[in-house]
């Protein structure tokens, strides 16, 4: 965090507390549900203060340039830009990830997928695993799993070079860059080598529903990472076939899915011979992650979760 832009004797300058209050009032007036939290996050970034600093230095004067930065950031939020896009970063799991225009924001729902993938990988004990994260974006899934499994390696696949560059930086910041192998491709066949596990949060929103999304998602998340085709299942159709071809016997395939897609995706996987292991719901009770396994290894525990 930059040095705090507070405390100097700026005659007539507003206090930290008054700047936070002004930003909060503007966001509330615009009907932004998270106005209180957003105002604090934006003020902290503009002023170079953490949450405690905003409280401890509430009555200090803010530098004029900091006030101008906060005003500009608040204007962006009023235009529906998500707060974490404005900040340029978002926490996920135990890490913080830089964002870029080519990446989705990693969201709490995806932690359901990461946790389920970790369960699958843990069944192999301390074996050195090679897994793929297809549509890596920020690299959040790959980085979290690499951190949990220090003998694992990941091929992080994405079609957007900007996303791969962002993911590289995030892997380096998390200390896993030596086991993070970026690959620019749309799917898996470009890899052409056996994999122990494939994990993916692919685009799954039907094309016709894109215009109904929240403006912050529709305008600022990359369409490439959202548009799942006419029925939202285009990526799944291709990935189940490629995973069935590349997974080692007993290898695992794990997907994040959208609301109501569990049965359709399970049918696609079954059609190529992948066995359903379990489904995991998110904190809202919605089926969010699916786990499939390629046949050929019978010594793992049966279905769990």
From TrEMBL:
Q: Which UniProt keywords apply?
A: Methyltransferase, S-adenosyl-L-methionine, Transferase
Name the UniProt record assigns to this protein: Release factor glutamine methyltransferase
Report the residue ranges that make up the Methyltransferase small domain in this protein: 131-205
Can you tell me which residues bind S-adenosyl-L-methionine?
Answer: 135-139, 158, 201
* Matches recorded under Gene3D superfamilies: DNA helicase RuvA subunit, C-terminal domain (1.10.8.10), Vaccinia Virus protein VP39 (3.40.50.150)
Reactions catalysed, semicolon-separated, are:
L-glutaminyl-[peptide chain release factor] + S-adenosyl-L-methionine = N(5)-methyl-L-glutaminyl-[peptide chain release factor] + S-adenosyl-L-homocysteine + H(+)
| MF terms (GO), sorted A to Z | nucleic acid binding; peptide chain release factor N(5)-glutamine methyltransferase activity
Q: Which Pfam families match?
A: MTS, PrmC_N
Function as written in the Swiss-Prot or TrEMBL entry? Methylates the class 1 translation termination release factors RF1/PrfA and RF2/PrfB on the glutamine residue of the universally conserved GGQ motif.
Q: Which GO terms describe its biological process?
A: methylation
Organism of origin: Aureimonas flava
